[in-house]
Amino acid sequence: MAKILILGGTAEARALAGMLEGHDVTLSLAGRTASPAAHPVPVRTGGFGGAPGLADHLRAEGVERLVDATHPYAARISANAAEAARQTGIPLLALRRPAWARQPGDDWTEVDDAPAAVVALGAAPRRVFLALGRQEARAFEAAPQHAYLIRSVDPIEPPLAVPRAESLLARGPFEAAAEHALLAARGIEAIVAKNSGGAATYGKIAAARALGLPVILLRRPALPEGEAVESIGAVLDWIGAPS
Ligand code: NAP
């Protein structure tokens, strides 16, 4: 079977790698988390140096197929993958998680980015659950009147410069019942999140619906055109591996 590079950082990439154990597969991580989840195939960590760096890496390692199984908000690496595949002629397939769709009872405000989410929260102080990841949380320093409960895998360093912010370190998946209990116990009045898709982090969306809480959702960034599938089975078919 072909030599494969999986661009990862998601549960799907890890699951895909698990199904390709024993094959010539390497998984690439950005290195965003201090202790990433264990992976069943060899892992390389850190940026490549843009699309040209990734193209050089693909050539140097003799990669024959590239799978972009990165997070839907990791738009730069997806764009780099598309460009590097174009430059090298190496086939690329993207594994893209469908976005969550609004259900009856959802109170969603969709915004383009974290600064727009800050505006959408409004001026009146609220108890806000930030389930955004570390990179976007900093924007909320612009609204110090709110009390924040901030969930992330690694601590936010330095801590957010607001008077009332509590850090909750946790890695998904997060079940709806536990999310419901958390939101109720902390008296949360609004949630800010990404539309990550998938089951692992949907619990807060379902819990918000049940509690009648507003959710401010960051819209997904634009991703490059190209061949894309939504299931691990479809990636295995493309690779020619048994599913
Ligand atoms: P990004 O903006 O797409 O990527 C920034 C740079 O990080 C890339 O240009 C690349 O550096 C490097 N990079 C990203 N993914 C890589 C991978 N799999 N292997 C090697 N290098 C990689 O992505 P981001 O800054 O990590 O995250 C953007 C958004 O996605 C954030 O909202 C974040 O919370 C979310 N997210 C990311 C991940 C993840 O694993 N990356 C996981 C969950 C959520 P070079 O240009 O130097 O190659």
Order of helices and strands: EHEEHEHEEHEHEEHEHEEH
In the CATH hierarchy, the architecture of the largest domain is 3-Layer(aba) Sandwich
Total strands: 12
Largest sheet: 6 strands, parallel
* Strand percent estimate: 15-25%
**Oligomeric state of the chains in view:** single chain
Instruction: Let me know the CATH homologous superfamily of the largest domain.
Output: NAD(P)-binding Rossmann-like Domain
Shape type = elongated
Distance between the termini: 14 Å
Q: Residue ranges: pLDDT <50 for 5 or more in a row?
A: none
Over all CA atoms, what is the radius of gyration?
19 Å
Write structural notes for this entry.
It is a single chain. The protein is of the alpha/beta class. Helix 6 packs across helix 7. The two termini are about 15 Å apart. The chain has 8 helices and 12 strands. The protein has 2 domains: about 5-95 and about 220-240, Rossmann fold, CATH 3.40.50; about 105-220, 3-Layer(aba) Sandwich (Rossmann fold), CATH 3.40.50. The longest helix is centred in the middle third of the chain and has 14 residues, at about 75-90. The structure holds NADP nicotinamide-adenine-dinucleotide phosphate. The site of NADP nicotinamide-adenine-dinucleotide phosphate has 24 residues, from strand 2, helix 2, helix 3 and helix 5.
